User: Fold this.
Amino acid sequence: MVEWTGLPRRKAEGWQNGNAPVLKTGGRKPLQVRVLHPPLSDGVEKNRKGCKPLVSSNPLPTAKFIFMTFSEYQKLTAKTALYKKVPVLKKIGTNIYPVLGLAGEAGEVAEKVKKMLRNDNGIITTEFKNDLTKELGDVLWYVSQTASEFKIDLDKIASGNIEKLLSRKKRGALHSQGDNR
Assistant:
């Protein structure tokens, strides 16, 4: 179960004057995730502290800013995974599609950065940030679907990755070579 802690209720349009709330998740360390969506719709109830819940009965819960765990994001993105109905993918296996999509979207991120360097002389404009944000969102979607296809929880990936990196930092092994350092 997820609950809000640390901050009073904020407007549905987003958090103002400071930090986002910390989410406590089932005995693990707090995790914060911000996901962009359109405004809140029906089926949303308030929790005991007066904040909006992370997910609603609406298939695509919404608010300009919704705070959720990676696992919740993963479950929501599954509702948009239309590729699972494609006959040829059903035949050969749907797990290849998000892997190929991830490679393609990562290439689009690189392309955006390349064009920013070439066309804008390395100046990071608002338009560039907006375009890059959209592409990174696509990368996140494909990461989520790839994890889902292989039945790996996105929360587990995120927490395992940060634990690995913090351990490497503590041991002075961030710049070392190899996967198991």
